[in-house]
Amino acid sequence: MPIEIDEVLRRSEQGATEPYICRGSDGKLYFVKGKGAGYDSLVKEWVAGQLARQLDLPIPRFCVVMVPQELYDAGRNGALRDLGYGFLFGSENVENVNEVSLVNVQHAPAKLKRDIAAFDWWIRNGDRTLTDSGGNPNLLWSESARRLVVIDHNLAFDEEVTLHSQLESHIFSSSLAEICEQSALQGHYNARFEKALTDLPQILGDIPERWHYVDDARTVEINLSLDLVEDTLRRHRVPAFWERI
């Protein structure tokens, strides 16, 4: 059952989509993305998040949340104009974390760096960058637990993302290069991708119908097609998937 949102506390100033920080009926805080983020981005978050779970990546718990229409209507002409109502995407708040830096990212295990780099190339997510001059890592760091938390996949399934662009700009580009140079690692990830895909029909089937449309009247479909999503996720079956051109 979806978690019902009881209260909207404020809007986050972090992240391009500026999610709303809300309290759910379970008493927990959620970063909620809805109308303003674009319903295609909710589909991307859902699919990528479910696949990340299958690959055991350290992502926050997420779920479909329900925003009552009366709650949205109370602020739709003001602070809540970009929230929307009905079924939306909610990611549970993680306590005591900060955006990762070049200093603490070095403490992440080599295997996890490879896992993230491989995953982002698989789903064509080019939105995980960090250099001395800045970037957008979409990774959080827990100093107390000394671990990474992986967030934000609203720009996944981008046809403009290539292996070359990932090797140039991804925060873990050297880890991706390592995979490209070792056939054993390629086989390892191809097998993991294939296993994760067994749940894809269920993942796609669980997407709320509302998310397939731009408007509340459900007359205009979102730009993202599920065929594109499936085609993207099957690319690893082609030998050239890991080949540097």
From TrEMBL:
Q: Give the superkingdom in one word.
A: Bacteria
Query: Which positions fall inside the HipA-like kinase domain?
Result: 5-245
Write one Pfam family the protein is assigned to: HipA_2
Q: What is this protein called?
A: HipA-like kinase domain-containing protein
